[in-house]
Amino acid sequence: MFHISKISPFFFILAYLDLVLSTFYKNDIQNLAFILVFGFIFNTVLGGLYQIVPNSQSQKLRYPWVSYIVFLLSLFGNIFFLVDNLKAFSGFILLAFLIFIFHIISCVKMVKPLTIRFILTGIFYMFLSVIFLNLSIFQGIVPYQLSVHTFTLGVMTNLIIGVLFTWIPMLTMQVLNLKLADKFYYVYQVAVFLFLSSFFVLNYNFILLSGVILLLCVLFYLYIIYDSVFKGKKVIVLPLVVKYFLSGWFLFLLGTLTMLGIIFFNRFDLIVLHVDLMVYGFGFLVLSGAIIHLLPRILWNWFYQEKAKQGKEVPPIHKLINEKLVLVNLYFYIPLLIFIIGLDYFKLFDISSSILGIFYIWFTVGTFYKLVKFVFS
Predict the structure, then answer these.
(1) Does residue 370 register a pLDDT over 60?
(2) Which chain regions cross the lipid bilayer (predicted)?
(3) pTM, whole model, 2 decimals?
(4) Per-domain residue ranges of the chain
C-alpha cells in the first residue's frame, strides 16, 4: 500500500455502531433512514475513500490530522442524532463533508480512469445529498427522501460500481470489458439523474418509470461483470469478498423490484421492506465486503510492514480474518434477512430489531476479533 489511512478503522467502527443503533428505529422510518444513510453508509464511505483515493493516485494524503477532525465532526453528528437534535446532526454532517472534500480532493491528480470518474461523481452527489439533508431538516423545502436517495444511489452505488469494476476483475484475475464499462458510466448517470429528479418532484409515476430504467441499468452492470469475469471462462473459485459483493447486488435487484411493487400497488405501509433489502441487504453485504477487504490490509501495513521489512516473522494478511466464520455468516444472513422481512411485513418490529441487533454485534465481533488480537499482541 502506498498510503495507510489510520483513521479508516475508526470510521468503520463508528459505522457498525450506527448499524446496531439503527435497529432501535424500525418504528420511525425517517430516523431509520437518517442513521442508516448518514450514519452507517456515510462513515463507511468516508473511511473507505480515505484509503482508496490516495492509493488510486499513488499519492500520500497531505495533513492526515485533518481526517481526525472529519471523524470527530461525524461522531458529534451521531451524538446529536441520539439526543434527537436533527438540526445539529445535519449541520455536523455537512461540516464533516465540506472539510473532507477539500482534504481528499487535494491528492487527486488523475481523473480519467473509470473508477476515479465514478468516485468523483459519487463525491459530487454526496455534496448534493448533505445539502438536501439540511434543506429538508431546516427548511422542509425538499423531501427527506431526496437526500436519502441522493446518497444511496448517487453516492453509494456510484462508489460501489466504480470500485468493484477494479476489485472484482483484480480479485478473480480477469480483465474488465473496459469498452462496455465506459459506456455504462454515462448510461448510469442518466438513470440516476432521472430517478433523483422523480424524487425531487415526488411524482410516483415518474419514480416508477425511472425505477424500471434503473433496474435495467443494474442488469447491464451485472452483465458487464459476467462478460468480464465468467463468460467463456472455466469454473472460477470466487474470493470471499466477491461472494459478499455479488450477494449484495442480488438483494439490490430484489429491493428495486420491491420498491416498484410498493408504488404500483400503493402499499407504502410496506416501505420498511424496501429498506430491509436495500440497506440491511445490499448496503450491509457490499460495504461489509469492502471493509473485510480493506481493514486487514490497513492494519497489517500499519503494524507489520516495518517488521516484515526487518525480516521478522509476521502473520499473513488472510490470517487476520476468520474467513470460515465470515463465509458462514454470509450464508446464514440471507435466510435470516428473509425471515426479518417476514416479521416486518407483519409489523413485528421489536422482534426483528432485536434479532438484527444481536446478529450485527455477533458479526462485528466474530469477523474482526482476530484483528484486535493481532493488533494488541
Answers:
(1) yes
(2) 7-25, 31-53, 65-83, 89-111, 118-142, 148-172, 184-201, 207-226, 238-265, 277-304, 325-345, 351-372
(3) 0.96
(4) 1-109
